[in-house]
Write a structure and sequence with these properties.
It comes from Aegilops tauschii subsp. strangulata. The chain is mostly helical and 238 residues long. It has two domains: 104 residues, no CATH class; 102 residues. It has 15 helices and no strands. Helix 2 crosses helix 4, helix 8 packs parallel to helix 11 and helix 11 packs parallel to helix 14. The longest helix has 42 residues. The radius of gyration is 27 Å and the shape is elongated.
């Protein structure tokens, strides 16, 4: 039933209820309540369907916006040419999960409880479509967890340029701390194999002045070795 049909049905019910109210005596109230309840039920069903359509519309709009700002324009253009559904599946998976009954937490909320919620989502086989963009704001904390570290490394192989840049921006400010922890070092080594040169040069620059200390560290030495392998000659000399 379209919106016009739903509105007509509701109006008919309300008019009928009003007729009973005006034309009867002691039995009026119960009849009126029954008809008004039915009208309310129809109206509620319409609102639920309208809400579903609205969420779907937001889903598509979010996908379009993410595609427009994705640094990897080659990929976004390819998805634009394929179909709106392909675009939505790639850029708006968090909205899809919410519409299907899954729970996607507010990834910007602070505290360990948020990280724990993300880890539960990662471990759930139903959420295998999760991407790195879904853990934005929590990369350093997740990289220190064995499951979170494994998730980040696996998703790096299929990450967009924008997601890789996101990892660099979140990890670089904490590089000295993360480089001395077991699980984050795996993420750092994997990350250094990806991404625009300007970002891994910035990360390596943050290691300068701490090379000796990290080289003597059980885990830090792995980061220094990887950084030396991929760095440009000018940074190697430094």
């Amino acid at each position: 039933m379209d919106n016009k049909g739903k509105s007509k049905a509701i109006d008919d019910y309300v008019r009928t209820a009003s007729h009973f109210h005006r034309g009867s005596g002691s039995g009026i109230d119960s009849g009126k309540e029954i008809w008004e309840d039915d009208a309310a039920t129809i109206a509620l069903g319409g609102r639920q369907r309208d809400r579903s359509l609205f969420l779907s519309f937001l889903d598509e709009q979010e996908a379009c916006l993410r595609a427009l700002i994705d640094p990897d324009q080659e990929l976004s253009c390819k998805l634009w040419r394929q179909s709106p559904e392909a675009l939505k599946n790639h850029y708006a998976l968090d909205v899809d999960m919410a519409c299907s009954g899954g729970h996607v937490p507010n990834i910007n909320a602070p505290g360990n409880s948020q990280v724990n919620s993300l880890l539960q989502l990662i471990k759930n086989p139903v959420n295998q479509s999760m991407r790195l963009i879904n853990v934005k704001g929590h990369v350093p904390a997740l990289s220190a967890d064995p499951i979170g570290s494994c998730f980040i490394r696996q998703k790096l192989d299929e990450a967009t340029t924008g997601e890789i840049v996101m990892l660099y921006k979140e990890i670089t400010p904490h590089i000295l701390t993360l480089a001395t922890d077991a699980f984050p070092t795996y993420v750092i080594q994997k990350l250094l194999e990806h991404g625009p040169a300007v970002y891994f040069r910035i990360l390596i620059a943050n290691l300068m002045g701490h090379v000796l200390h990290l080289s003597l560290h059980l885990y830090g030495c792995r980061v220094i070795q990887k950084a030396f392998e991929i760095s440009d000659i000018d940074q190697q000399i430094k």
